[in-house]
Automatic annotation (TrEMBL):
Family: Belongs to the methyltransferase superfamily. RsmI family.
Molecular function terms from GO: rRNA (cytosine-2'-O-)-methyltransferase activity
Protein name according to UniProt: Ribosomal RNA small subunit methyltransferase I
Domain Tetrapyrrole methylase: 9-207
Region of interest (Disordered), residue spans: 225-247
The reaction(s) this protein catalyses: cytidine(1402) in 16S rRNA + S-adenosyl-L-methionine = 2'-O-methylcytidine(1402) in 16S rRNA + S-adenosyl-L-homocysteine + H(+)
Subcellular location: Cytoplasm
Pfam family, one: TP_methylase
Organism: Algoriphagus kandeliae
Lineage of producing organism: Bacteria, Pseudomonadati, Bacteroidota, Cytophagia, Cytophagales
Amino acid sequence: MSESLPISLYLVPTPIGNLKDITLRALEILQSVDVILAEDTRTTGMLLKHLEISNSLQSYHIFNEHKAVEKLVERMRRGEVFALVSDAGTPAISDPGFLLVREVIAAGLAVQSLPGPTAFVPALVNSGLPNDRFVFEGFLPHKKGRKTRIDSLVDEPRTMVFYESPHRLIKTLEQLAEAFGADRQACVSRELTKIHEENVRGTLEELIAYYETNPLKGEIVLTVAGKPERKESREEKQEKRSKKYRD
Ligand code: SAM
């Protein structure tokens, strides 16, 4: 269905490290909405100060998400306009937001996400792995369901993108090497857009060896090649051709 209603909720991406990564439209929206909903009002407060924007902030995080949604939708019905931001990157991408978007749509109100910073896009592109098709896996479950999730990806042919914390990276690389094979190509993108940005490419085995001697700090995205398509052998091609002539 087409939407010609005025927007009630904007999702506004904010920088993932480099404070210059904010769009002109993001600045305009953050300045003009009635209220900015923030995952952490202190973090967003500092960003707004840097951007010289003063506007009212209200807390919206994973712990109050369910409770807050109903009240917010009611305020939108009465005409208030909100912007949702997370601590960094695009709201609702491995961050709170999905629930609010869903309920605002269900209430027949209009939502718009601005394009802007997010960690998985530069990581995927920097990896040099095929990106015509890919899967975004976000964070793997820490305990329950972790192995099941990894096993479900064993035959995945598309490039896979994971968010991961630095202290869990080696364990994840080891588990993926066990499931996918140690020779699978991958890339660890660290501190994207920041001064110490680094993209380390290699097989899973090479990355394990690298990070065992180079302790890891900062935020990371792990990109892993999909399962290589099996090439047809000459015999199989020949067999196919002769079958075509026989049929
Ligand atoms: N909403 C964010 C987005 O759009 O990318 C993601 C938020 S999620 C809570 C945080 C994770 O994103 C980090 O653990 C890391 O995996 C990834 N991340 C965020 N900023 C990053 C950066 N500058 N460099 C590498 N990874 C980053």
